[in-house]
Amino acid sequence: GDLQFVQQGKTTLTAHIDTIEALDTIDEAIFLPPADAAPQKMKFITISGGVAQGFLIKRVDPDYPPIAQQVRVQGTVVLEARISMEGRIENLHVVSGPAMLQQAALDAVKQWVYRPYLLFGEPVEVNTTINIVFTLGNQMGRHY
Description:
This protein is mainly beta. It has three helices and ten strands. It has helices spanning about 50-55, 65-70, 100-110; strands at about 1-5, 10-15, 45, 55-60, 75-85, 90-95, 115, 115-120, 120-135, 140-144. The strands form three sheets. Strands 3, 5, 6, 8, 9 and 10 form a six-stranded mixed sheet that branches. Strands 1-2 form a two-stranded antiparallel ribbon. The longest helix is centred in the last third of the chain and has 11 residues, at about 100-110.
């Protein structure tokens, strides 16, 4: 059969398998790292926006731009950010969204602060996606 591995909506690996056979024995040595292998510190990992939201400790809501309100522009601004080991926003940029709302989303999110994300007890930088939803009415500025 055919196998397809998808990560974050993109195909990362495809494989075709004709037969599957059971192994009588497994040489566990093939799973050990080479003797000269040295551990490498991860530079950053990617986490979902939902996971990142659980680490958010300071959130600043965006100001709805008056001109966007007047012309009734609504929509979602999608941002990508790196959260530093100290929980600060870095490398923040717009992925998509209405142009009239982008700067307001950037201005708000760059002030956000997160609790550091720990991997094996050590803080690491993380990449994540942040959605800022602008709607006219009481739900302006939601994110997930």
